[in-house]
């Protein structure tokens, strides 16, 4: 061996030792993995918004049909704070191994997702055809609730995608009094064995502060074209959509005749486009029968330009009413709507709005999400969906609370609420996480004269885990259900530590309870017994000096001005009859329709 060669061997020795050591470590690791003792990262504890490893979802075939490889959830890191308006950046990953046990492609194009205590079978239909491998052609996600509406006002039920803004602006509160400053007469309809006067549940009037250029191209009365108008847009029981000047209560343009009752809440396009959307509550009007439709109106010409059939041939339930108030994603021109037929509609509207020419058109492409929950066969959604980014939350008549990835149309988690849930879910994002608040009613569990608990819950919105639950005993009654029909006030600003629920028929068929619960613990902060129950959702609004006030209406026809820190009345006025609808507030004005067959304009003084 030459010196040179020997030198090379000496050089190689340390490398050989390192290599052998690495081999030893690798073999030990393989052995540990084999015996199952290799420490792995606990994926269950990985925060949902953080980047999680991409993996193929477990696909087990439970039916003997051909197993389809379902692609893994892509990993999306929340790169931007919620102020972002780019859906690509807003998408959150929900890849959490704990959220489901297995996922199986079924023979009929559905997918069965099995969770800890139940399962969901779901179908995605594009142009009414079941598609087994749905892939969205663009990303859909919502921004922060403050970013929901470009148009000032209340443009959907509870104002935003968290369902937490039933009011807009700030009120100048001095006397802490309410005063009716106008009323506007509306009608009633009769169904078989039923009579529906005025406005119904959820019935929140829409308030739109139009931009001057949009106002000028619409068919608003000439004398109001130059006025800085806040317009009340209100579909009600008598089958008309009323348009009123919020200041005076006078018609701002001719009413539109739908011909059949609306009892839910409509939606005005949050982009400030002259488009109005509404479902239908009944399909009969004083003996005349019709079909159920979900309608979209052009507010320039004031005419219907598109509709979805309520009795949808692809739906599992042939009841076509629609009380749910839709959401519109203004970044992607996408409408999200839930039907009482059990379907979720995701429609790319393909809107063309030419402000200068005064023309607007849509050409929707409709995708549908249909599902069956193992919790209950009851189909139909009456609450208004809430959305955190790409995660949508809703509950159904069978008591399934569902978190649905609205981008991929895939259920993320389900929760058994135990009964029909029509109260809309409210959302909150905090430093501790994203949470939802929900409450059910006493319906499917009921027997006449029996009692059951209305369950109020705080749930981790990303994992579906219960944070706390608070129960209130309610009386069952079949035609007017007890429990929560109202959507809660989610405290903000000076009442940010509480959430306020309105629970009907606690104790008897005529009374109720208004309760403020501590958001962290679920403990009662205050409780008020009501001698008149209510289905109306309480409304919080902020004063110019930073104090939160609350309006609350009941079945005896009172509107209360309440201090939400104590639950006590500051003032109380009569609005003529049962209030199932819930008020909207714009600065110092509140508007609501009641069973007295009137819309009321109430000044907060
Ligand atoms: Ca229901
Ligand atoms: Ca019910």
UniProtKB/TrEMBL annotation:
Residues 44-64, 69-88 are annotated as: Disordered. Pfam families: PQQ_2. The chain crosses the membrane at residues 12-34. Residues 511-602 form the Pyrrolo-quinoline quinone repeat domain. Residues 46-64 have a biased composition (Low complexity). Keywords: Membrane, Transmembrane, Transmembrane helix. This is Pyrrolo-quinoline quinone. It comes from Ruminiclostridium cellulolyticum (strain ATCC 35319 / DSM 5812 / JCM 6584 / H10) (Clostridium cellulolyticum).
